[in-house]
Amino acid sequence: MKKLFILINILIIISVSNAFSHAQHYAKIKYLKYNLFLNDELIGYHTFHFKSKNELLFVKGEGYFKVSKLGIDLIEYFTNSNEVYKENQLIEFNSNTKQNDKIKYVKVKLNKNTLNIDGSSFKGETDSTTLTSSWWNHEIVKKKKQISSISGRIIDQKVNFLGKKKINIDKKDYNTLKFHIFSNDNKPMNEKKINIKIWYDSDSLIWLKASYEKLGKWEYQLAEIKY
User: What pTM, to 2 d.p., does this model score?
Assistant: First the structure.
């Protein structure tokens, strides 16, 4: 029975890959906006602007949130990023992030069959099939590792398919494919660097929702989409 369930997971992921086998299908989208909640309280947002030109897809991201308690700002976070793809291949990525007074950055550049990484936590290279942790790109569920879009470190990951689920966002029902992405290490689940549940629309594969626990329940929800 367990082997059958694993086989079903594999077949589902393959079918997802074949349905939209490249990032270029996002060229139809102009804008995605997500609201970020902490313990059901709206604290911020993340947006993505898409622009296609010739064979290139450009994705500009921006995120912000602030956590306050008793009138005191505990965390203020801002990030912006730029991604460039050519025929499904990530060819360039850069981001700058500020959390309170701490600055982090990443620069990724394709060089033949490798991605060269210059980040605040890692400097080196990885194979060209690796993606950054940009959840809008559904292909992340096919990967065995990811590059942190904040600091550049490389994280081995596992992905479990949790089934087809119906969810409701802002009074609208969606049929989704639900995945669990987590670090491939020996740490307990609650101590892993990545431990996130993520939902994609079963037809369009647009990222709809993501949630994780870290000193509270954090949740991204799709707020707006423009074509």
Answer: 0.87
